[in-house]
Amino acid sequence: MAHAPAERTGFLQRPSTGLLGALVAIHVLVLAVVVAKASSLGAMDADVGRAFRIATSPAVPYRAFPVEFMPLQTAADRLLAGGTIGAAATRIALLAFVADLAAAGAMLWGWSRRAAATYLILALPLLPFLYLRFDLVSVALAAWAYAWLRREREELGGVALGLAVMAKLWPIALAAVFWLRRSRRGLVVAAGVCIVLGLWWYLTGGVKGPFQVLSLRDTRGWHVESVIGSFLWIWHRGDTYREADALRIGDVATWMKAMLGVALLLVEVFIWRRAAIDRRDPMGAASLAAVAALGVFAPILSMQAAAWLLPFAALALDGDDDERHTAGVAAVAIALTGVIAIVWRDHATAPAAWVPWLVVLRNLVWIDVVVSWIRVPVLERPPIEPQPLPRRRASDTVPDGLDAVLPFDAE
């Protein structure tokens, strides 16, 4: 049975300003290396190349050519990824670094130095490739959405959540926490932000944009790093081929997509209905499991999806034993993703024969993030006992003064 968090000791219990500064300095060092090698990294990185092509195309995204990204990411690519491939990689890295610090700042302001330091440590294995991705922007927005909600500024939290969803679709899973906290205004604001940006998306890109995002540019195969795709990969159930800047295998049937969608919906409902009766903070392990479930049932699981787990794993590590166990499993998945990024640099080409087994191992650990939390016993909220009515004192009924001698009601 789970218990309340025990008093903990260690270097992260009350991290000093010097420790936080040292962790930030490591992140700055990684940024400096990425910027120094921007030209070579950009030429080899498929995601930077995709952003560069979107930025330099004279055609209108979504209307003239399909784009798999949400509109805020596409707008950022158009704004930042032009010029040369090296300049594009540099600007993308700078944006990712600012978002990285913003996410750490949300953890610091919304929770504690411990949460911020934990986030900075968990992110380290991912930084060499994550600074060439847009995902940290959505992570920062999601972290600030939770931080503002926790500080009872639900309108600002709603703005951040709406922006996060329009930057990357995955933060939509976090809307349940606003509902559980009865933050109706936050949800209305988030919906309003999505509607306004969606209208802009429609006016500039036409009606095809949402379908291109949901279908990942009409890709037909399993991403080899996805849960199902990785097993097809190691079992040699077909040849791998390049599609939409990634290696894929097999063919994802429409009925299979429908089944995965239904399964994801059922798991999400189970996680959040469970969180509604659990007295633990849903911003920690429950959010971690809900976000991890998105990767379990998706036909694509890119390396940068590990960044989505960072703030919630940091919060769960500050919870009770069961929450810390789930967060520890997530930390292993994050670390394995970092290893995959090191041993498999060009994801548009086939890696060494043993790398698919490493991908399968990462995916099994990723699945366990969800399973380990679902198996945890619920800590039900204590029942609210009715307060006894106060009894009237005898002196309250005894008349005194003028009332004591009047034969009738003074009123």
List the helices and strands and how they pair.
Blueprint: H1 17-36, H2 38-44, H3 46-56, H4 71-80, H5 85-110, H6 113-122, H7 127-130, H8 135-150, H9 154-167, H10 175-180, H11 184-205, H12 209-214, E1 222-223, H13 227-234, E2 240-243, E3 246-249, H14 254-277, H15 285-296, H16 310-316, H17 321-343, H18 355-374, H19 394-397
Antiparallel strand pairs: 1-3, 2-3
Helix pairs in contact: 1-5, 1-6, 2-5, 3-4, 3-5, 5-6, 5-8, 6-16, 8-9, 9-11, 13-18, 14-15, 15-16, 15-18, 16-17, 17-18
Description of the molecule:
With 411 residues, this protein is an all-alpha fold. It has helices spanning 17-36, 38-44, 46-56, 71-80, 85-110, 113-122, 127-130, 135-150, 154-167, 175-180, 184-205, 209-214, 227-234, 254-277, 285-296, 310-316, 321-343, 355-374, 394-397; strands at 222-223, 240-243, 246-249. It is globular and about 80 Å long. It starts with 16 loop residues before the first helix and ends in a 14-residue tail after the last helix.
Structure keywords:
single chain, 411 residues, mainly alpha, three-stranded antiparallel sheet, 19 helices, disordered N terminus
